[in-house]
Write a structure and sequence with these properties.
247 residues, alpha/beta, Rossmann fold, five-stranded mixed sheet, two-stranded antiparallel sheet, 42% helix, globular, binds zinc ion
Length: 247
């Protein structure tokens, strides 16, 4: 009887609140899962071909435009944690892919890009930790807050690469004195755009002795729209997206 009631309840919930794609809100097969069309549009598990020394490799999970941006905006601008299950689902779906295995092979632990203390207390959470924390623990990779943001940086969304570099130099430091000699570290970040933020973090980790540095970004433009986006922002001064706006 109990089982019957449970099934009836599940059917009722399914009927009243059918699972919808977290991006386009179309009815989908499974709760929190992207519909096939959105998955095709945004899922892009690939390595950035550029040189981001001292980072050894950058892998992204999704393309920033075409859906992920909306999820990240809800998370960062509206502090809406309801989008997290959908993001975790995306990560779970790629967890067994070769690209992930090869990236994580030999990695000792992960470090999230830190928020400035003021930003953290405003928002109440570090979005990168929320996105990756549980997934990394399933991969037996501890997430260690080894970095700190030494100063609040202005919003970077309208700045080009050179301007970002200037602003971000020295913006990160070791949170504690830890010897990382011989360690391979994975930096996780929500959005990778010019790479300036992650490179600054990587420099600090290198100065702590880290041997190898990898980056896993939930979303990235990989230059597909970035220069275009900056041009739009600069000409219209329109408040919009991209890396670090509300970090
Ligand atoms: Zn969709």
């Amino acid at each position: 009887m109990e089982k019957f009631l449970r099934e009836l309840w599940d059917a009722l919930i399914y009927f009243l609140f059918p699972p919808r794609c977290p991006v386009c809100r179309e009815i989908s097969d499974e709760r929190y899962r992207l519909c096939a069309a959105c998955e095709k549009k945004i899922l892009r598990l690939d390595t950035y071909a550029g040189n981001f020394a001292p980072i050894d490799r950058v892998l992204r999970v999704t393309k920033y435009r075409g859906g992920t941006r909306d999820l990240l905006r809800k998370l960062k601008f509206d502090n809406n944690l309801n989008v997290i299950p959908a993001m975790k689902k995306i990560l779970d779906d790629v967890a067994s892919r070769e690209e992930i295995f090869s990236l994580l092979d030999g990695v000792n632990f992960a470090v999230p890009v830190p928020l400035h203390a003021e930003r953290f207390s405003e928002r109440g959470f570090n979005q990168t930790t929320e996105i990756f924390g549980e997934w990394l623990s399933k991969k037996n990779l501890p997430l260690r807050n080894l970095l700190t943001r030494t100063r609040a940086t202005p919003k970077l969304y309208s700045l080009n690469k050179a301007e970002r570099e200037k602003i971000l130099v020295g913006a990160f430091a070791a949170a504690e004195a830890v010897d990382l000699r011989g360690q391979s570290v994975l930096i996780v970040d929500d959005i990778f755009t010019t790479g300036t933020t992650c490179r600054e973090c990587a420099k600090v980790l290198k100065s702590m002795g880290a041997k190898k540095i990898f980056v896993l970004a939930f979303a990235s433009d990989f230059g597909e729209n970035f220069s275009q986006a900056v041009a739009i922002h600069q000409s219209h001064k329109r408040v919009d997206n991209t890396e670090d706006r509300v970090r």
